[in-house]
Amino acid sequence: MSTATGAAASNSLSPTTSRRSSPSSRILTTPRGSLSCRLLSSSPSQSPLVPVSAMASPGAAGEAASRKKLLIFDAEKDLAASLAEHAAGLSEKFAAERSAFTVVLSGGSLIKALRKLAEPPYLEAVDWSRWHVFWADERVVPKDHADSNYKLAMDEFLSKVPVPANQVYAMNDALSVEGAADDYENCLKQLIKNGVIAVSPVTGFPKFDLMLLGMGPDGHIASLFPGHPIVNENQKLVTCVKDSPKPPPERITFTFPVINSSAHIALMVTGAGKAGAVHKALSGNESSSDLLPVEMVEPQDGEMTWFTDKPAMSMLSRI
Ligand SMILES: O=C1O[C@H](COP(=O)(O)O)[C@@H](O)[C@H](O)[C@H]1O
Fold this sequence. Notes:
binds the ligand O=C1O[C@H](COP(=O)(O)O)[C@@H](O)[C@H](O)[C@H]1O, Rossmann fold
């Protein structure tokens, strides 16, 4: 693997995320595009561990780099602080621009990483009345079930912030898996009509302001699992899976056209258990037919930021 350091890495992070000590910047280029890359380290003497393959044409690399950024943190608490600033900054921007901030949550480890949003200064500073909260995926279980993504988010985050209850759009847990997916899609369509959810002029699909994603060790995002046919769904907004390889088996999930139409995608990936999928996603050695779901996250009308740590990046070469 050839390496190149990113002299052109302007790395225009949100001003609110720029307070870290001596971050180093790189352009990370993969066969499927490039990422502007920043190590955010509490011990700046340690170098980032990232691969850089041959640069694409400067124009293409620059354009892609402006849409994808990679942040690598030494400590989980720093990642959580940066994610909170990122979300709070976008909340302020969209509340001012369109009087609503549409936020999509996932389940899993992402929720713990959002905890700083429920603490000062964000707890008081964020205009929670503008928030409209959705789920990228939900397990088809009762809302009070231990596997429910809604329950996790309520217990760990939403119960601690004053988002109006009627702006939290949970799956209807009284329906079948197909019925729940259709019902959630209808809910989105109604909110598009009401002007709460924007529509991407590029794709024609709903354009959420902030899509917060996690990634499983197998490279799944939302409930879009590797090799499952629903990863190719290109008409529906919400679909379902009845045979999820990760329990519970029945789930509903946003489709890729919706995820990729977001204005901002924040992908939170931490821990050595995710290093294999991160390596595949960022080194890009496989043919396109073998893409992991995480590799299919490609913003069409917005930006994407990876929030990672060193263990997650540990299978990648040093630059
Ligand atoms: O099952 C799920 O897993 C993914 C990843 O979870 P993590 O705990 O490994 O971060 C999550 O993003 C998704 O929403 C959830 O339903």
